[in-house]
Design goal:
This protein is α/β, with parallel strands linked by helices and about 250 residues long. It has eleven helices and eight strands. It has one domain: Aldolase class I (TIM Barrel). The protein is about 40% helix and about 15% strand. Strands 1-2-3-4-5-6-7-8 form an eight-stranded parallel β-barrel, surrounded by four helices. The longest helix has 18 residues. It is globular, with a radius of gyration of 17 Å. The two termini are about 20 Å apart. The structure holds 2-phosphoglycolic acid (PGA). 2-phosphoglycolic acid binds next to strand 8. 2-phosphoglycolic acid (PGA) binds next to strand 8.
């Protein structure tokens, strides 16, 4: 089964009422190819507004959810709440959450499974830091992160993996198509050996980290790159080119 191309836009903590209105207008003007799944992740406060106004070809994701359905967890959102609002996706384990909010591999695994059980699909993020790449332990790091996710996940059809080398996020320093392809191929092999051949064949593996309108086509041409998770460029008109980057 061919893996459907997937493009995610992570707005991070950006936007205002005015900007969100303009972004939705921009997105509604894009051509979304039938063979491409597009999901955008606004800040939580704007989720419903975006969801209410965006065209149906574009889905809306939260940037984080917790591992409880409700209760005394000030500041958190549950995947059940997303479901209640008609939202189908969440980003889990972004490197900024791991770094600034001290999310562990274990918590990322738990959050991923909890969201899936609530009926929300997950963009699960992994990736090595610069010093880890320089120490030649990239594969070990991503394998460790995948293992913590695989420990919890039962239904891989609800997971999209985003490989995002931390040194490439927001830095303008994109991984070369070869560097990205090498890690993606390794992750697919890891899935075949540790989960199942089906999971390896069918799970979309996205690349993220300084993807833009100029570099997306050569990355998208690589056999194991099934799409992108885009930060900065998802707030700009070039996001339309990225959505259309699969030849
Ligand atoms: P960037 O961010 O495209 O701005 O590098 C990617 C991400 O954090 O998902």
């Amino acid at each position: 089964m061919a893996r459907q191309f997937f493009v995610g836009g992570n707005w991070k903590m950006n936007g205002s009422v005015e900007q969100v209105k303009k972004l939705v207008e921009m997105l509604n003007g894009f051509n979304v190819p039938a063979n491409t799944e597009v999901v955008v992740a606004p800040p939580a406060l704007y989720l419903d507004r975006v969801h209410q106004n965006i065209k149906k070809e574009i889905k809306v994701a939260a940037q984080n959810t917790y591992i409880k359905a409700s209760g005394a967890y000030t500041g958190e959102l549950s995947p059940q709440m997303l479901k209640d609002m008609g939202l189908e996706w969440v980003i889990i384990g972004h490197s900024e959450r791991r770094e600034y909010f001290k999310e562990s591999d274990e918590l990322v695994g738990e959050k991923t499974q909890f969201a899936i059980e609530a009926g929300v699909s997950v963009i699960a993020c992994i990736g090595e830091k610069l010093e880890e790449r320089e120490a030649n332990i990239t594969n070990d790091v991503v394998a460790r992160q995948m293992k913590a996710i695989a420990k919890y996940v039962k239904d891989w059809s609800k997971v999209v993996v985003a490989y995002e080398p931390v040194w490439a996020i927001g830095t303008g320093k994109v991984a070369t198509p070869e560097q990205a392809q090498d890690v993606h191929a390794y992750l697919r092999k890891w899935l075949a050996e540790n989960v199942s051949q089906k999971a390896a064949d069918e799970t979309r593996i996205l690349y993220g980290g300084s993807v833009n309108g100029a570099n997306c086509k050569t990355l998208a041409a690589k056999p194991d790159i099934d799409g992108f998770l885009v930060g900065g460029a998802s707030l700009k008109p070039e996001f339309g080119d990225i959505i259309n980057s699969r030849q």
